[in-house]
Specification:
It is built from five helices and 25 strands. The chain is mainly beta and 318 residues long. It binds 2-acetamido-2-deoxy-beta-D-glucopyranose (NAG) (6 copies).
């Protein structure tokens, strides 16, 4: 308790305000009539927001743990009878003379970067800068648990997003999963939550929620990699899973027949045209101009040693 007193004293100068909120009922909320929720404001501001919305707003539920202000379209005669018990909630009927009583509790009495918040026992000015790895609760700044962070922009800790994790408490940011890995879940607490990319995929950036397929003409035979390997030579092609780079046999004593004249294409384009056809067994690129491309559905043996027929391994078909 001594520790919490010390922490409290940080906020206490100018902070304990004359009790002016007798209408507040601690420990209850009114369900079913909340029309709007405003985040990250004090209870007095919450009442002011309600007053601004008269007659549509008649009462408030205020969550003291998350500083959430719920505006209700209805008031409640006897909240302790009709309401829902909730340790973290304050309920108040907001009547037209509330502004007057609020006068005593103006947030002005709090120092800059502090706001007036009603806890279960008293009203205190809490730091709006419960920042850099802490969150505000009952007037104190407590360290964020592992798997969470506060970069100083909020009064509570947020779960680490997918692609990140946090293995220690009190953090203002989350660690990024290294390149070559990913994760898909919020709030992860260990480096082990970062899953290596499977073979055939890669991730060049850190902090990602998925891996990417190796691009055209590249492959990856190992897991957890940040890039893929090129397989772009004319005499090579990638298997369907993008995990292997095959060498295309160039058969000097075979030639292709049947098939299609693909027109003018350079060699990589011709290889691609073959790969895209299910019935293509190989392709021929005209040796004279290196451009006219044929994709073949069959081949036959020949005595010629000068054909430019590339046989396409079956594993290379898309
Ligand atoms: C009001 O909310 C409670 C849950 O708190 C629910 O059980 C009940 O059905 C709701 N009533 C109406 C009329 O929506
Ligand atoms: C929080 O961290 C940022 C950057 O790391 C720093 O500029 C800022 O002064 C810190 N704030 C506090 C209250 O420590
Ligand atoms: C958190 O993980 C990093 C990276 O693996 C490691 O260097 C560090 O020691 C860990 N810290 C704790 C508190 O486990
Ligand atoms: C992946 O991360 C390592 C270590 O930080 C770095 O050396 C490497 O350059 C990165 N790779 C890519 C493709 O960004
Ligand atoms: C193509 O193959 C040759 C010989 O095997 C190699 O030296 C060259 O680096 C390869 N080029 C590419 C882009 O893979
Ligand atoms: C075709 O390409 C080969 C090597 O790839 C080269 O030796 C030859 O000169 C080229 N022919 C023409 C007509 O460009």
């Amino acid at each position: 308790m001594r520790v919490s007193c010390i922490i409290f004293s940080v906020f206490l100068p100018n902070s304990v305000i004359a009790s002016c909120l007798e209408r507040l009922t601690h420990g209850y909320r009114l369900d079913n009539f909340t029309t709007e929720i405003i985040s990250n404001i004090g209870v007095h501001t919450c009442i002011k927001e309600c007053l601004l919305r008269k007659p549509h707003c008649q009462s408030i539920n205020y969550n003291i743990q998350h500083f959430l202000c719920g505006l209700n379209s209805r008031e409640d005669e006897d909240i302790e009878l009709e309401g829902v018990p909730d340790y973290n909630s304050i309920f108040a009927n907001v009547v037209t003379d509330s502004l007057q009583s609020l006068g005593k509790c103006k947030e002005v009495v709090c120092q800059p970067l502090h706001k007036c918040v009603t806890t279960q026992f008293t009203e205190v000015c809490i730091s709006t800068a419960c920042s850099n790895g802490t969150y505000g609760k009952d007037g104190q700044c407590l360290p964020c648990p592992a798997g969470q962070y506060n970069d100083g922009s909020k009064q509570w800790c947020s779960f680490c997003p997918p692609g990140r994790y946090n293995n220690k408490t009190g953090s203002s940011s989350c660690r990024r999963c290294p390149n070559g890995t990913y994760n898909t879940l919020h709030g992860q607490t260990t480096l082990d939550s970062c899953v290596p990319c499977s073979p055939g995929t890669y991730q060049s950036k850190s902090g990602q929620r998925k891996c990417l397929n190796c691009p055209w003409n590249s492959y990856q035979d190992q897991k957890g990699q940040a890039s893929c390997k090129l397989c772009s030579n004319l005499s090579q092609c990638v298997n369907e899973e993008r995990t292997e780079c095959h060498t295309l046999p160039k058969h000097v004593k075979r030639m292709g027949y049947d098939g299609y004249n693909e027109g003018d294409k350079n060699k990589p384009q011709c290889k691609k045209a073959c790969r895209e056809k299910l019935d293509c067994v190989g392709f021929t690129v005209s040796p004279e101009d290196n451009s006219t491309c044929y994709t073949h559905t069959r081949f036959r043996l020949t005595q010629s040693t000068s054909t430019n027929f590339y046989e396409f391994p079956s594993g290379c078909h898309p």
